[in-house]
Amino acid sequence: MSGSVLLLERTSKTSKSHRQSPKTYLTLLQGWPKHKSLCKIYQSSNPPPSNTYCGLCGNTDKLTTTKCCGRTICDDQDNYQMFTYSNASCDRNHSRYTLCSSHHKERHGNGKWQDCEHCRKNFTEDESYVGQGTSSFNFKDDVWENAPSFEPASCKTCNKRIKMGSEAHSYGPNGLTCVSCIGGWDVINKGTRGED
User: Same structural domain for residues 164 and 135?
Assistant: First the structure.
C-alpha cells in the first residue's frame, strides 16, 4: 500500500500517545473513506440538510434515525455479522458504544448525558466512561468539552497499558489483566466455546 496514513485518535488530557497495533491501523484505514466523506460535507460552504446523510459517515442511502437522539444514521444493522465485533455498522456502533444511547436505554431522564451522574455510575473504569462519550461513534454535535481526565488503565500483572475501549481485557481476582497475562487469545476463545 502506498501513500500516507492519517492517524486520528482521541485521548484524554492525561493520556500519552502510544504506538498503534497493526489491527488498529487496519481499523483506521477502513474508517478513512467514511471520515473523508463526512469531512467533505462539514467543509462544504453549502452543506446539505443534516437529515439527508448519516451523521457518522456521510452516507446518503438507506437511512434511519437513532432511538436515543433522533439523529439521521445509516440503517445498516443488517450488515453486522454476529460475533465478529465488527465496527462496520454506524447504527450498531452508536446504539452499543455511546453514552448517548446508554443514557436513553437506561432511562436516565431528559437531561444531557454529559451531565448525568447515573451514566457515570454505570462504569467501573473512568477510561471506559470517557471513551464512550468521546469515541467516533458519537455525532459531531456531541463533543464533550469537559470530559473528565483519567489515568490510563494498565495490567495489574505486567503493567502494560490497556486501551479499555479497543483491547481485550479481563477483571479477575488480581484486578484488570491484559490478554497476554490471561494466557492469550487461545484461552479466551476456548472459554467462549465452553471447552475445559
Answer: no
